[in-house]
Amino acid sequence: MIRFMKHILFTASLVALTLPAFAQLDRSQKPEPGPAPEIQLGDYESFTLDNGLQVFVVENNKLPRVAFSLLIDIDPQTEGDKAGYIDLAGQLLKRGTETKSKEELDEAIDFMGASLSTSANSIYASSLSRHTENLLEIMADVLLNPAFPEDELEKLKKQTISGITSSEDDADYILRNVSRVLVYGESHPYGELTTKESVEQVSIEDIKAYYDAYFKPNNAYLAIVGDINKADAEKLIRQHLEKWEQGDVKQTDVPEIKAPEATTVTIVDRPSSVQSNVRVTYPVSLQPGDEDVIKARITNQILGGGASGRLFTNLRETYGYTYGSYSSLSSDKFVGSFAASANVRNEVTDSAVYQMLYELDRISSEPVEEDELQAVKNNVSGSFARSLESPQTVASFAINTARYNLPEDYYQNYLKNVESVTAEDVKATAEKFIKPGNAHIIIVGKAADIEDNLSQFGEIKYADKYGKPKEKNTTAALPDDLTAEEVISAYITAVGGEEQIKKINDLKITSSATIQGTALEILQLMKNDGRYFQSIQAMGMEVSKTVINDEEVAVYQQGQKVPMDEEAMKETALTAGFMPELKFDAYEVATELTGIEDVEGESAYIIEATMPSGSKFKSYYSVDSGLKLRESREVETPQGNMSLSTDFTDYREVEGVMFPYTTSLPLGGNQKLVAEIAEVEINAGVDESKFEIQ
Question: What are phi and psi of 334, to 5 degrees?
Answer without folding.
Answer: -110, -50
